[in-house]
Design a protein that fits this description.
Layout: E1 4-6, E2 13-15, H1 24-34, E3 43-45
Parallel strand pairs: 2-3
Antiparallel strand pairs: 1-2
Length: about 60
């Protein structure tokens, strides 16, 4: 597996961030976003992830 997997109530978060620090606030924001009922399959996270003041665009 080339990614870190965060499990949530709805969809998992697949993080391709090996060796890259991810801010705790960004990680929590991703978990909260993944819990939304309209997220399909999973959320993909790239190494340049950071917390934003508005909901992030996710793939």
């Amino acid at each position: 597996m080339n990614y870190e997997l965060l499990t949530t109530e709805n969809a998992p978060v697949k993080m391709w961030t090996k060796g890259v620090p991810v801010e705790a606030d960004a990680r929590q924001q991703l978990i909260n976003t993944a819990k939304m009922p309209f997220i399909f399959k999973h959320i993909a996270v790239m190494p340049d992830v950071h917390r934003v003041k508005v909901p992030p665009l996710v793939a």
